[in-house]
Amino acid sequence: MKHIVFTKDEELKDLLFNKIEEQECKLITMSYPKCTKKSRIDKELFESVFSDEIVCISIRNVIIGANYRELLKRYATTDVSIESENKPIELPWGEWVNNTNILITHKNNYYLRVYSVDKNCKKYYIYSNGSDIEKEKFKKLDEFLPLEKENDNEQKVIVNNIKLSNINTIEFKDKKIERIFK
Length: 182
Description:
The protein has one domain. The chain is built from 5 helices and 10 strands, in the order βαβααβαββββαβββ. The protein has helices at residues 9-17, 37-41, 43-49, 68-75, 135-144; strands spanning 2-6, 23-31, 54-64, 95-96, 103-106, 109-116, 121-127, 158-163, 167-171, 175-179. The longest helix has 10 residues, at 135-144.
Protein backbone atom coordinates (compact mmCIF):
# COMPACT_ATOMS: atom_id res chain seq x y z
CA MET A 1 0.00 0.00 0.00
CA LYS A 2 1.33 3.42 -0.97
CA HIS A 3 1.59 5.85 1.97
CA ILE A 4 1.18 9.59 1.31
CA VAL A 5 1.50 12.21 4.01
CA PHE A 6 0.33 15.82 4.16
CA THR A 7 0.55 18.64 6.67
CA LYS A 8 -1.63 21.36 5.13
CA ASP A 9 -5.24 21.37 3.95
CA GLU A 10 -4.08 22.76 0.60
CA GLU A 11 -1.96 19.61 0.05
CA LEU A 12 -4.93 17.38 0.86
CA LYS A 13 -7.14 19.41 -1.48
CA ASP A 14 -4.69 18.81 -4.35
CA LEU A 15 -4.48 15.07 -3.55
CA LEU A 16 -8.27 14.70 -3.48
CA PHE A 17 -8.84 16.77 -6.57
CA ASN A 18 -6.89 14.22 -8.59
CA LYS A 19 -9.18 11.48 -7.25
CA ILE A 20 -12.19 12.07 -9.48
CA GLU A 21 -13.53 8.51 -9.94
CA GLU A 22 -15.86 6.93 -7.38
CA GLN A 23 -14.05 5.00 -4.65
CA GLU A 24 -14.80 3.52 -1.26
CA CYS A 25 -12.47 4.40 1.58
CA LYS A 26 -12.11 4.49 5.34
CA LEU A 27 -12.19 8.03 6.71
CA ILE A 28 -10.82 9.03 10.12
CA THR A 29 -11.64 12.52 11.35
CA MET A 30 -10.93 14.46 14.52
CA SER A 31 -13.09 17.39 15.60
CA TYR A 32 -14.38 19.24 18.60
CA PRO A 33 -17.91 18.05 19.34
CA LYS A 34 -20.75 20.49 19.03
CA CYS A 35 -22.53 21.04 22.30
CA THR A 36 -26.17 21.50 23.15
CA LYS A 37 -27.74 24.71 24.42
CA LYS A 38 -27.42 23.36 27.97
CA SER A 39 -23.63 23.31 27.81
CA ARG A 40 -23.50 26.78 26.28
CA ILE A 41 -25.92 28.18 28.86
CA ASP A 42 -24.36 26.40 31.83
CA LYS A 43 -20.76 26.88 30.74
CA GLU A 44 -19.49 26.91 34.33
CA LEU A 45 -20.97 23.45 35.00
CA PHE A 46 -19.60 22.11 31.72
CA GLU A 47 -16.11 23.44 32.49
CA SER A 48 -16.21 22.07 36.04
CA VAL A 49 -16.98 18.59 34.69
CA PHE A 50 -14.64 18.77 31.69
CA SER A 51 -11.58 20.81 32.52
CA ASP A 52 -9.78 19.94 29.27
CA GLU A 53 -11.06 20.25 25.71
CA ILE A 54 -12.82 17.18 24.40
CA VAL A 55 -12.05 15.74 20.97
CA CYS A 56 -14.26 13.42 18.94
CA ILE A 57 -12.53 10.85 16.73
CA SER A 58 -14.83 9.35 14.08
CA ILE A 59 -14.11 6.31 11.91
CA ARG A 60 -16.44 5.49 9.01
CA ASN A 61 -16.52 3.82 5.64
CA VAL A 62 -17.53 6.26 2.92
CA ILE A 63 -17.72 6.72 -0.83
CA ILE A 64 -16.08 9.74 -2.46
CA GLY A 65 -16.27 11.00 -6.03
CA ALA A 66 -19.73 9.52 -6.49
CA ASN A 67 -22.73 10.91 -8.30
CA TYR A 68 -25.45 11.32 -5.65
CA ARG A 69 -28.29 10.54 -8.05
CA GLU A 70 -26.61 7.29 -9.12
CA LEU A 71 -26.09 6.27 -5.48
CA LEU A 72 -29.77 6.88 -4.74
CA LYS A 73 -30.73 4.58 -7.60
CA ARG A 74 -28.20 1.92 -6.60
CA TYR A 75 -29.16 1.75 -2.91
CA ALA A 76 -32.88 2.49 -3.18
CA THR A 77 -35.15 0.22 -1.15
CA THR A 78 -38.16 1.32 -3.18
CA ASP A 79 -38.64 2.26 -6.82
CA VAL A 80 -36.93 5.55 -7.41
CA SER A 81 -37.32 7.62 -10.52
CA ILE A 82 -34.45 10.06 -10.57
CA GLU A 83 -33.08 11.66 -13.67
CA SER A 84 -29.46 10.69 -14.11
CA GLU A 85 -27.27 13.69 -14.73
CA ASN A 86 -23.53 13.56 -14.67
CA LYS A 87 -23.16 16.95 -13.04
CA PRO A 88 -23.01 17.91 -9.36
CA ILE A 89 -26.25 18.66 -7.55
CA GLU A 90 -26.90 22.20 -6.36
CA LEU A 91 -25.73 22.93 -2.83
CA PRO A 92 -27.71 24.73 -0.11
CA TRP A 93 -24.47 26.50 0.87
CA GLY A 94 -21.01 26.82 -0.64
CA GLU A 95 -19.85 26.06 -4.18
CA TRP A 96 -18.40 23.01 -5.89
CA VAL A 97 -14.70 23.40 -6.66
CA ASN A 98 -14.21 23.32 -10.45
CA ASN A 99 -17.73 21.90 -10.92
CA THR A 100 -16.76 18.50 -9.48
CA ASN A 101 -18.68 16.45 -6.93
CA ILE A 102 -15.78 16.00 -4.53
CA LEU A 103 -14.78 19.32 -2.97
CA ILE A 104 -16.87 22.24 -1.73
CA THR A 105 -15.61 25.69 -0.79
CA HIS A 106 -17.44 27.91 1.70
CA LYS A 107 -16.20 30.93 3.69
CA ASN A 108 -12.52 30.21 2.89
CA ASN A 109 -12.81 26.57 4.01
CA TYR A 110 -12.79 23.38 1.95
CA TYR A 111 -15.06 20.40 2.55
CA LEU A 112 -14.94 16.84 1.22
CA ARG A 113 -18.33 15.49 0.09
CA VAL A 114 -18.71 11.89 1.26
CA TYR A 115 -21.56 9.40 1.08
CA SER A 116 -22.28 6.52 3.44
CA VAL A 117 -24.69 3.68 2.87
CA ASP A 118 -24.57 2.44 6.45
CA LYS A 119 -24.81 4.11 9.84
CA ASN A 120 -21.70 2.40 11.20
CA CYS A 121 -19.72 5.42 12.32
CA LYS A 122 -17.61 4.72 15.39
CA LYS A 123 -17.06 7.74 17.64
CA TYR A 124 -14.56 8.03 20.45
CA TYR A 125 -14.38 10.95 22.85
CA ILE A 126 -11.08 11.78 24.51
CA TYR A 127 -9.42 14.80 26.06
CA SER A 128 -7.36 16.86 23.61
CA ASN A 129 -4.18 15.81 25.48
CA GLY A 130 -4.94 12.19 24.48
CA SER A 131 -6.07 10.87 27.86
CA ASP A 132 -9.31 8.95 28.28
CA ILE A 133 -12.40 10.51 29.82
CA GLU A 134 -13.25 8.85 33.14
CA LYS A 135 -16.39 6.66 33.07
CA GLU A 136 -18.44 8.85 35.43
CA LYS A 137 -17.56 11.98 33.44
CA PHE A 138 -18.29 10.19 30.17
CA LYS A 139 -21.86 9.50 31.38
CA LYS A 140 -22.29 13.22 32.07
CA LEU A 141 -21.02 14.01 28.57
CA ASP A 142 -24.34 12.74 27.16
CA GLU A 143 -26.11 15.66 28.85
CA PHE A 144 -24.02 18.16 26.93
CA LEU A 145 -23.72 16.62 23.47
CA PRO A 146 -26.58 16.56 20.96
CA LEU A 147 -28.29 13.25 20.29
CA GLU A 148 -27.36 11.45 17.09
CA LYS A 149 -29.87 12.28 14.37
CA GLU A 150 -31.87 9.42 12.96
CA ASN A 151 -31.57 9.32 9.20
CA ASP A 152 -35.07 8.92 7.78
CA ASN A 153 -33.78 8.86 4.20
CA GLU A 154 -35.48 5.79 2.74
CA GLN A 155 -32.82 5.53 0.04
CA LYS A 156 -30.21 4.88 2.77
CA VAL A 157 -27.61 7.27 1.33
CA ILE A 158 -26.19 9.52 4.02
CA VAL A 159 -24.50 12.72 2.83
CA ASN A 160 -21.79 14.46 4.85
CA ASN A 161 -19.52 17.40 4.11
CA ILE A 162 -16.31 16.97 6.09
CA LYS A 163 -14.10 20.00 6.70
CA LEU A 164 -10.62 19.23 5.34
CA SER A 165 -8.99 20.49 8.53
CA ASN A 166 -10.81 17.70 10.44
CA ILE A 167 -9.51 14.87 8.23
CA ASN A 168 -6.68 12.79 9.66
CA THR A 169 -6.62 9.72 7.40
CA ILE A 170 -8.19 8.52 4.17
CA GLU A 171 -7.46 4.90 3.41
CA PHE A 172 -8.17 3.57 -0.09
CA LYS A 173 -7.55 0.00 -1.27
CA ASP A 174 -4.21 0.94 -2.79
CA LYS A 175 -3.07 3.94 -0.74
CA LYS A 176 -3.29 5.70 2.58
CA ILE A 177 -3.32 9.49 2.86
CA GLU A 178 -2.43 10.66 6.35
CA ARG A 179 -2.03 14.02 8.09
CA ILE A 180 1.25 14.60 9.91
CA PHE A 181 1.02 17.18 12.68
CA LYS A 182 3.99 19.53 13.02
